Amino acid sequence: MIKQFKLLIYSFFLLVLYIPILIFPEGQLHFLRLFIILFSGSAVLGLYIEIRKLSGRWIMALPLSIAYTWFLLFTISDSLMRNFMGRGFSFLDTVYINDLYHLLKDSYGTMPAFIALILLITVPAGLLIINYLVYRELGKLWIHSKLSKYTLLLVMVSLIAAGSLSFLNTEALWSPALKDLKNIVTLQNRKKEISLNLDDEASRRIETITNQIEITTPLDKLNNANVFVFIVESYGRTFFDNPENWKVAEPEYRILEKKLMDSGYSIASSSLVSPAIGGNSWLADSTFNSGVWVKNQTVYNELIGSKIPVLGTFFKDAGYKTIVAQAGMRNSGDEKHFYNFDKTYNFSDFGYKGPSFVWATMPDQYILNFINQNEVKGKNYPVFIEYILISSHFPFQKIPAYIKDWNKLGNGTLYNENGMVKTLPIPEGRKTAGPFGFTKSILYVMKVLTDYISTQLKDPSLIIILGDHQPYSKVTGPYGGRQVALHIISKDSSLIEPFLNRGYTKGLVAPSTDSAPGMDTFLSTFINIFSSAPVF
After folding, report:
1. What is the pTM of this model?
2. What is the rounded distance in angstroms from the CA atom of residue 224 to the CA atom of residue 220?
3. According to the model, what pLDDT value does residue 445 have?
4. Separation of alpha carbons 9 and 16, rounded Å
5. I need a labelling partner for 389 at 20 to 30 A (CA). Which of 35, 72, 244, 328 fits?
């Protein structure tokens, strides 16, 4: 009688759990919905196996528990990736576990990062044990119950049906697990060209650009002007579109805009759609540089294994020295060969002796000054420099002091002094300094860039300022999406006119729009504008 009661209680418990799943819309319970569906499905399958007595009670329970636990973990990971990064989870993402550990360590300290690492190991083990017990113990209850097995089976089938209803307005997030099985082999040797599960459209784009680009006079309309690309971390449209953010930012932004114009600069602004959300900056960077929509890690790995010409390639062909400044990177890996810059500056190349700023290894102002001193001043040849700026990185908490006299920056030791770091509070229950911290960090970066452009650059140059992606969902709130800010700036108005003619807005503030071109379109637009005889 007790065992019968346990079985009925368990069945009722599962049924009750489905009620909020069916009532609540997409959002916070999306993760809970997936978890319960898979967990209860595991229990049902275990009962069926026991009823049919396909094998011993535990012999089949163990491999089935392993399989279901694997799918459960994949689904959890996929749900989290879609919630925070706007894309599905891939096996290839596991190569970034080390980067995740360092992000947590820099953001929250060594102990929380270590605890997270332990949980990463123990949680799967715990889920495996729970699944195994469900398979085995429920099977025992079923076998020894005197209730009608058809009645109990009907209850469990009803639970499955109820769970299935929750998928009516939901993408089946576990489906990528099946497709991504093929990509396990890429973890064995990531240096090989990857063609498994590649998006057909991206594959065709790579082939088209690789084989059909023909430019007889690349970028000749630039007249050897230096070109600087500043990719600003998390500079998404929520900065402008969220009224609370813009209320804080607008007064200072208008001052920055006026300073540039008073210094003789013309400005054209617009928006682009990024393939990334909340992180995965390399997807956005590679999309911008290659003209290929890099929507996930699989496409990215295929791309960097290809021989496609990237933005820097065209500058090389035009006689420029090409440089990338990426102070957040400790090594370049395969990407170094793909981008093929003449000079790559990683973290250890900057000689920085100051403190770190959570995930940001050093302030953006220091990065700009170092590269300016070593690669821009006094050079008699044109340079193309791409900066991967990091001061506006999650968790938007520590804001470096702005140093008015650039000559005092030195090797960065002055940032160790009191008052050189502003630490914003992280609200209770939050992981970041929130929208306010995000807004302040973007304002710092734009103030530094404005001052650098107006006071440190002496020769006519073309400046491109671009966000890589929107900040993560808890910062954007209802002002999410994939649009990022884009500014084109130069003292030579003839370099700006082509963008204005294409619908860009004068000044630093472009109006909000429901539609914007993808980040992958910028390369062809840029090459076509500044080359006399492009075929793209």
Report:
1. 0.71
2. 7
3. 95
4. 10
5. 244
Burial class (CB in 10 A: 0-12, 13-18, 19+), 520: buried
Neighbours of 413 (CB within 10 A): 13
* DSSP conformational letter for 372: I
Distance in Å from the first CA to the final CA of the chain? 77
pLDDT higher than threshold 50 for residue 462: yes
Q: Predicted confidence band at 162 (pLDDT cuts at 50, 70, 90)?
A: very low
Residue in the structure block whose two tokens are 């084109």: 488
Q: How far, in Å, are 60, 260, 454 from residue 488 at the CA level?
A: 63, 12, 14
Phi, psi of 264 (to 5 degrees): 95, 15
Two tokens, residue 387:
């900066």
Measured CA to CA, the distance from residue 249 to residue 326 in angstroms comes to 27
Min mean pLDDT across 18-27, 362-371, 413-422 is at: 18-27
Q: What is the mean pLDDT of the chain?
A: 75
From residue 21, alpha-carbon distances to 13, 33, 74, 80, 383 in Å are: 13, 5, 20, 17, 57
Confidence class for position 269, pLDDT limits 50, 70, 90: very high
Quick check: 421 and 415 in contact, CB under 8 A? Answer: yes
Query: Which residues are 114's β-sheet partners?
Result: none
Residue whose C-alpha is closest to residue 521's, from 302, 333, 270: 270
3-state secondary structure of 269: strand
Rounded distance, CA 41 to CA 18, Å? Answer: 12
- Most confident range, picked from 8-17, 133-142, 444-453, 465-474: 444-453
Q: How confident is the model at residue 307 (pLDDT cuts 50, 70, 90)?
A: confident
Residue 413: what pLDDT? Answer: 92
Are residues 462 and 228 in contact, defined by beta-carbon separation less than 8 angstroms? yes
Chain length of the chain: 536
* Token pair belonging to 529: 């504008």
Residue 225 CA to residue 128 CA, distance in Å, equals 61
The C-alpha atoms of residue 243 and residue 446 are separated, in whole angstroms, by 19
